[in-house]
Recover the amino acids of this structure.
């Protein structure tokens, strides 16, 4: 989405109302032809000239001012400077393409015209009659909707193209890799240093950049001296009792004895225990018994002269072994004696991974599944289809992956989709790709072995551009072969539909027509083939997420819909609920449960929906989340919190212009914020949390839970518009996934019990911040231990740059997580470990390292 998830029009208006009225800007930016007009190439515009342009064109973006006004609404001013290669006059006939996920509303240039192609793809063309002299610089001033707070908003891989020539990526627009952190950087975007102009849009915005000095104060307020906890298990068990006696030596191995389960059911967890230091030979008895008296995910773990586990199911047994593995790694296989009684607070503990916007590898998904199991998460919501990509091979519909899984320069979209999200002109890039049927079966089996249910999702009826364009290629192929009936079978376009619309992501062609029989034939085919893959894996498809969000006012001029509405007495706003109800009923007939995003699901008639419905609530915590969650729970549905200002991992971990993340819902989602979330009492979060502008709010429980109703679960979300590599994905997920797992599993003593009708206001004392902080300090110290486990697993988690200040000629520094060592250096010096205040002169550079010393954070400078 422009913003990182799909955002419904009504919800987006609510969210953006917090950012100085950006929603009031027009939905159609700049001008929007179906494709940019390109003049015929001049005879002198040959491939060599285009290649030289790609190699040597200067390309530089600068964010000038975030405090602009466009049509009485807040906007920002940016400037793109193009410096032409040295030499003679450059011929016309070429176009520069680039991506920006957002809406440009106005542009000014003496030499170039700016036009929107579709979605986030824009085109710059030289103006007729303007001489483009070698070595000259031309600046295009561009005003954009909303704000631009971080350099990562701009996409890489701009390119030049001309008819009959091979397009070339502009070298100056490519990403670079930071040698310190190993992460992508965007050197073509100028540093953002003027906080007064760039740090906020309105005088009432209290959010400030997290400079090293401010980070120092924040870290100091959150941290105490590093301690060595006795028990390091995360998420925190319900009850732990330490026992006296010598520790149990597992270094030489253990004698595994099972009752009520087979070894295959716990293979992955046993492997994790061995990797934690338990040996391969024979040793103390480790008995695992299924006890049906316990709830399915509960377990009892006792470490004495042997290890005894009782669990309510194989899932509970796996949880117990994962807890034992964590403690074994910490204790060096000399496990202290203890007893644990444990069970989760919430039955649904999920993670959503978007591989549709930018593809992520099977290896990444498998590694993430292992970490989910380690921290007792049990649902993987795998987002496989959206506007920008279709990522699962479907038998009988090869175009879905041959075309829909790739983005490249093909304006006709016969071989690939448009190069959205900075994919660049080439087909063979890491952001393209898909899971083969065998890949998906491997993922399903790996998840099942770890007690995790995979919930696949192809977002519909909006967010369906990849499917629509792929099926158009199929249509043309079969029509050319003379198979008109076959061509029409899964066609998702109605030729006579003249509806003009723009989705939140600025597409004018991304919504399935819900009045066409072919739409439902296509869905039937996709679901049936997905079911077959689950059956082949031995993992029946239990639940399917239909999306059902952000339908962008389509169908108003559709002849099929006009006839359908007249026949059934419906109006256009009722078509999306009709679609959801129909697809949900169809899924129920196949024995599949329905899940969807709350904005679409909330418009349905509960009486027409199946018995089991999952709704992901993604309204703002300080906005409509409580009302929406309680209302949909009261319908008898399973409510899963996906609130973007707390659980979206594509939001920045700190308000910093160098954090490559979107921030439409939050500019500051760090681990402490996630840790302090209260999922079972949404209004109570107003006591502790501030909104995107750093301001407090009052949240009243206007729609209380009905007796017997409540929350089913919580889910973290990783949307991938600006997440182009697996390492970038891990950087966003970890370590923030651990406090999310903590809140999903463990109810803290400081959380305010839910009280129907209660109101909460920021700072009202109804939730004790000192109690939260005290609990956090214990969690943080254990988190430091778990960073070492993530190091061992090769997870590229985020290392927060240190806080620092210079006072009286001395350097003071601290880390967000005390277990990450700090290093510093003066200009030209070697890195030196920081162990305490030290005398310095001049600017000082600082960084933290991972506990194993192999990875580094971004460098920050303090003066």
């Amino acid at each position: 989405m422009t913003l990182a998830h799909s955002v419904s029009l009504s919800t987006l208006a609510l969210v953006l109302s917090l950012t100085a009225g950006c929603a009031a800007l027009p939905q159609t930016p700049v001008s929007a032809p179906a494709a940019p007009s390109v003049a015929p190439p001049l005879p002198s515009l040959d491939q060599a000239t285009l290649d030289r342009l790609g190699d040597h064109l200067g390309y530089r973006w600068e964010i000038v001012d975030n405090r602009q006004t466009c049509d009485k609404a807040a906007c920002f001013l940016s400037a793109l400077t193009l410096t032409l290669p040295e030499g003679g006059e450059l011929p016309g006939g070429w176009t520069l393409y680039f991506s920006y996920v957002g809406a440009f509303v106005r542009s000014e240039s003496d030499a170039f015209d700016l036009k929107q192609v579709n979605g986030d793809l824009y085109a710059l063309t030289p103006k007729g009659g303007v001489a483009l002299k070698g070595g000259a610089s031309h600046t295009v001033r561009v005003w954009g909707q909303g704000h631009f707070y971080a350099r990562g908003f701009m996409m890489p891989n701009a390119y030049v193209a001309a008819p009959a020539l091979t397009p070339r990526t502009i070298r100056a627009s490519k990403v670079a890799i930071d040698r310190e952190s190993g992460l992508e950087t965007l050197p073509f975007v100028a540093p953002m240093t003027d906080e007064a102009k760039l740090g906020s849009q309105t005088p009432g915005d209290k959010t400030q950049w997290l400079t090293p000095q401010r980070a120092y104060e924040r870290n100091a307020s959150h941290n105490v001296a590093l301690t060595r906890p006795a028990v390091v298990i995360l998420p925190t068990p319900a009850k732990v009792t330490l026992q006296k006696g010598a520790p149990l030596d597992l270094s030489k191995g253990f004698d595994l004895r099972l009752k009520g389960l087979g070894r295959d059911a716990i293979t992955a967890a046993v492997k994790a225990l061995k990797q934690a230091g338990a040996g391969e030979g024979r040793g103390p008895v480790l008995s695992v018994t299924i006890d049906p008296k316990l709830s399915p995910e509960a377990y009892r773990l006792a470490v004495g002269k042997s290890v005894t586990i009782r669990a309510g199911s194989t899932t509970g047994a796996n949880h117990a072994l994962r807890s034992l593995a964590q403690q074994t790694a910490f204790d060096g296989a000399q496990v202290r004696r203890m007893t644990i009684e444990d069970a989760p607070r919430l039955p649904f503990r999920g993670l959503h991974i978007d591989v549709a916007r930018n593809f992520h590898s099977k290896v990444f998904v498998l590694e993430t599944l292992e970490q989910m199991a380690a921290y007792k998460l049990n649902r993987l919501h795998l987002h496989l289809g959206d506007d920008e990509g279709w990522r699962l091979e479907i038998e009988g519909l090869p175009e879905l992956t041959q075309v829909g899984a790739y983005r490249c320069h093909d304006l006709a979209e016969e071989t690939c989709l448009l190069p959205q999200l900075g994919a660049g002109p080439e087909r063979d890039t890491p952001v393209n790709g898909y899971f083969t049927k065998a890949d998906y079966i491997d993922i399903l089996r790996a998840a099942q072995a770890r007690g995790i249910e995979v919930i696949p999702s192809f977002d519909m009826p909006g967010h369906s551009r990849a499917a629509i364009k792929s099926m158009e290629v199929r249509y043309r192929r079969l029509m050319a072969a003379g198979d008109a009936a076959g061509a029409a079978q899964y066609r998702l376009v109605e030729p006579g539909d003249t509806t003009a619309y723009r989705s939140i992501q600025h597409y004018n062609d991304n919504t399935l027509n819900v009045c066409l029989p072919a739409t439902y034939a296509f869905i039937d085919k996709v679901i049936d083939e997905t079911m077959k893959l689950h059956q082949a894996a031995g993992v029946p498809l239990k639940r399917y997420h239909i999306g059902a969000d952000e339908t962008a006012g389509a169908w108003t001029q559709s002849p099929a819909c006009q006839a359908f509405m007249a026949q059934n007495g419906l109006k256009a706003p009722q078509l999306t609920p009709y679609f959801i109800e129909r697809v949900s009923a169809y899924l129920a007939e196949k024995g599949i449960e329905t899940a969807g995003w709350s904005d679409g699901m909330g418009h349905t008639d509960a009486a027409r929906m199946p018995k089991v419905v999952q709704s992901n609530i993604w309204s703002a915590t300080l906005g409509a989340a409580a009302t929406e969650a309680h209302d949909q729970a009261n319908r008898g549905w399973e409510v899963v919190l996906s609130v973007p200002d707390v659980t979206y991992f594509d939001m920045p971990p700190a308000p910093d212009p160098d954090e490559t993340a979107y921030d439409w819902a939050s500019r500051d989602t760090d681990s402490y914020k996630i840790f302090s979330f209260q999922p079972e009492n949404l209004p109570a979060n107003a006591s502790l949390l501030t909104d995107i502008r750093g301001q407090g709010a009052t949240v009243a429980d206007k729609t209380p839970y009905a007796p017997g109703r409540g929350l089913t679960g919580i889910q973290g979300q990783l949307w991938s518009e600006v997440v182009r590599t697996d390492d970038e994905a891990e950087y966003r997920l970890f370590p923030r996934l651990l406090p999310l797992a903590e809140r999903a599993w463990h109810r803290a003593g400081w959380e305010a019990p839910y009280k129907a009708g209660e109101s909460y206001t920021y700072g009202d004392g109804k939730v004790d911040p000192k109690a939260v902080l005290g609990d956090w300090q214990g969690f943080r110290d254990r988190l430091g231990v778990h960073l070492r486990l993530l190091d061992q697993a090769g997870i590229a988690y985020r290392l927060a740059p240190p806080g620092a200040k210079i006072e009286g000629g001395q350097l003071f520094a601290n880390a967000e997580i005390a277990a990450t060592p700090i290093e510093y250096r003066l200009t030209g010096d070697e890195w030196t470990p920081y162990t305490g205040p030290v005398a310095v002169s001049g600017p000082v550079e600082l960084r933290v390292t991972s506990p194993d010393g192999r990875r580094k954070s971004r460098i920050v400078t303090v003066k």
